[in-house]
Amino acid sequence: MKIKKIDITSSVIEKGLDTAKSFLDKLIMPAIEETGLLLKDQVTMWKFKNQVKMLNKAKLLCEKNNISTKTISLKLLCPLLEYSGLEEDDILQDKWAILLSNMVDSDQNIENHVFPYILSQLSSNEFLVLEKVYDDKIVRVAKLTAELHEFKESKPQIEKEIEDQIIEIENKIKARKEIVKNHLDNETWELQKDRRKLESQQTSIKYKESGLNYQIRTPENVPEDSLENFELSNIIRLGLVKEEKEFFANPQTLEIPLDRDDGYGYSKSYANIDLDIDVESNTDYILTQLGELFISACKIKQKKNSL
User: Fold this and answer.
1) Mean pLDDT of the chain
2) Residue 246 — very low, low, confident or very high, per pLDDT cuts 50/70/90?
3) Residue 216 and residue 145: Cα distance in Å, rounded?
4) How does residue 137 score in pLDDT terms, banded at 50, 70 and 90?
5) Which residues, in sequence order, are CB contacts of 165 under 8 Å at separation 6+?
6) Distance CA 93, CA 89 (A)
7) Which of 10, 107, 218, 220 has its CB surrounded by the most CB atoms within 10 Å?
8) What is the pTM of this model?
9) What pLDDT shows up at residue 8?
10) 156 preceded by a cis bond (ω within 30 of 0)
11) pLDDT in tens, 265-284
């Protein structure tokens, strides 16, 4: 049996390399012929250009926002440079630069090693949707916090005014009862009605502060119609969003006929039994604490003296 020799001549190897190079040209823009380097060096140069572009953007951000830089560990810097070198999207390249500028900011303590990995796994649409949700929460929380602060300042005065009005009405009721000999007339009834309204206001004031605090702590919903199913699955996988389901049952009444002797013959009656058999659920997708921290790390932090 004749053994076929494997052709390992330089011309054959070069032909295979040219084929791979031609295929890679179709996948990478700009075309790698521009560099005139070997295949490995061409990819390295393309990554290096992206890294340099990102580093220059980060440098400008630090200068513009008067950021006093600090050194960060290679364990944090190397993955950031590696992942950012593969980024082609202009929007996400800007986010890489912002993330780096925040990580080297001596006034901040962002050392989460998972942030570079998370950013490398996101599309620009996924990031922008999460950023919009985060921005909406910041605005909502700021508004509620201002309302809570204003309420706390005015609460003692409001409570005193209501208490004074209740005392005044009670005195009027007492005086009116002496006139009508404890009979309930229309005027007394109206006064009691006004007192109940004021007492209801007192109760509302007691719970308003806790209600505002609850709203402030409430996480922000992510609009699922802004994302494709695979995008939603991706951000859930990364821990940026979580799914919350609320189950509830609608009671169904079952009537069971009963035959009984009422003394005049049999008559039919029914026993009503409530059965919770119709179970439904609502699904919400909310921004997690990790999601908030991540988006915050990718947002520009303007210093007061840079405004």
Assistant:
1) 81
2) confident
3) 7
4) very high
5) 198
6) 6
7) 220
8) 0.72
9) 39
10) no
11) 554 555 666 655 666 668 89
Buried b (16+ CB within 10 A) or exposed e, 84-123: bbebeeeebbbbbbbbbbbbbbeeeebeeeebbebbbebb
Could you report the per-residue pLDDT of 42-68, keeping only the tens digit for each? 677 888 888 889 999 999 998 899 988
User: What is the phi-psi region of residue 66: left when phi exceeds 0, alpha when psi lies from -120 to 50, beta otherwise?
Assistant: left
The region, left, alpha or beta by phi > 0 then psi within -120 to 50, assigned to residue 250 is beta
The dihedral sign for the CA sequence 160, 166, 170, 171: positive
The tokens for 52 are: 């340099």
Enumerate the H helices of 39-123 as residue ranges.
39-64, 74-84, 90-103, 115-120
* Neighbouring-strand partners of residue 285: 243
pLDDT greater at residue 112 or residue 64:
64
What's the one-letter identity of residue 117? Answer: Y
What's the chain's length in residues? 307
CA dist 188 and 186 (Å) reads 5
For residue 116, which amino acid is it? P
Q: State CA 276 to chain mean position distance.
A: 34
Give me the pLDDT at residue 219, please.
93
Q: At what angle do helices 39-64 and 90-103 cross, to 10 degrees?
A: 60
Give the SS3 label for residue 87.
coil
Nearest residue to 136 (alpha-carbon basis) of 284, 286, 240 = 286
